[in-house]
Write a structure and sequence with these properties.
The chain is built from nine helices and five strands. It folds into two domains: 165 residues, Beta-Lactamase (2-Layer Sandwich); 50 residues, Orthogonal Bundle (Arc Repressor Mutant, subunit A). The longest helix is centred in the C-terminal third of the chain and has 29 residues. A five-stranded antiparallel sheet has the order 2-1-5-4-3, sandwiched between helices.
Length: 250
């Protein structure tokens, strides 16, 4: 598939939120996966917020332990927080010459091997839901065309979230984001339990959970809660019974 085809497919995915079983967690995970696949970035992560000046948590995704430490600091300082507070894109910056206001984030990101960092807000007019952090581990910055495409993805994702059937009002938006933030803890616990139970990596465990949820039209949080409680994947929902031939349907 060409890059242009992937871009077109991504915009379709980000617009496809008007469905009964819309899963905000899987939706945000797909956004970061698409950014890593299409844009010239090493890692990408969505950081969510409630009304106010602060970011509160990375959206549930599948970061490495090293990236998790970077994201925890990104909640307090760095390009993701600046993009959220200003509702503007933060251009790719060399972490060797990062602003003095990012000391902890810069040190942790450089220790993790990242060389450039930028971010774009998840915004629609006056409403900003968080930001999309873009990290690069190369000797050159993210091309500005890719930064503009990342902003377009973030804008499309925000529109899709706000106009989805479950996110029609501001209070509901905040409630769904609150659920997504706290679901991260359950998903992390479930990843560890499934990885231990099947003797697989955390990455494989997350992929298994996500495929199971999609295949059986379950929320990722529902799958994670079942694993956390039982140690294994939930059984697929039973298919509705069809009336036997010759028996009138009720």
């Amino acid at each position: 598939m060409s890059r242009e085809q992937k871009i077109a497919e991504t915009f379709v995915e980000l617009a496809d939120t008007l469905i009964a079983d819309f899963d905000i967690i899987d939706f945000l995970q797909q956004l970061t996966a698409r950014c890593r696949d299409i844009l010239a970035v090493t890692d990408a992560a969505v950081l969510l917020a409630y009304p106010g000046p602060h970011l509160y948590s990375p959206a549930p995704c599948d970061p490495s332990p090293v990236l998790t430490k970077v994201l925890d600091l990104a909640l307090r300082e760095g390009p993701a927080l600046d993009a959220y507070r200003t509702s503007t894109a933060i251009a790719p910056g060399n972490l060797a010459r990062a602003p003095a206001t990012w000391p902890g984030f810069t040190a942790e990101a450089r220790d993790a091997g990242y060389t450039y960092a930028s971010a774009v807000p998840l915004r629609l007019r006056q409403q900003t839901l968080g930001s999309l952090l873009l990290l690069r581990a190369t000797d050159s910055p993210l091309p500005l065309d890719d930064l503009a495409l990342a902003q377009a993805f973030a804008d499309a994702a925000t529109i899709g979230l706000i106009h989805s059937g479950t996110l029609q009002h501001t209070d509901t938006v905040n409630g769904q984001l609150h659920t997504a933030v706290h679901s991260r803890i359950t998903i992390e616990q479930a990843k560890g339990a499934l990885a231990a139970q099947r003797n697989i990596s955390l990455v494989s465990a997350f992929d298994t959970m996500r495929r199971h949820a999609r295949r059986h039209r379950l929320l990722l949080t529902t799958v994670a809660e079942h694993i956390a409680a039982t140690g294994d994947l939930p059984r697929p929902p039973a298919a509705p019974q069809q009336p036997s031939r010759g028996t009138p349907a009720e």
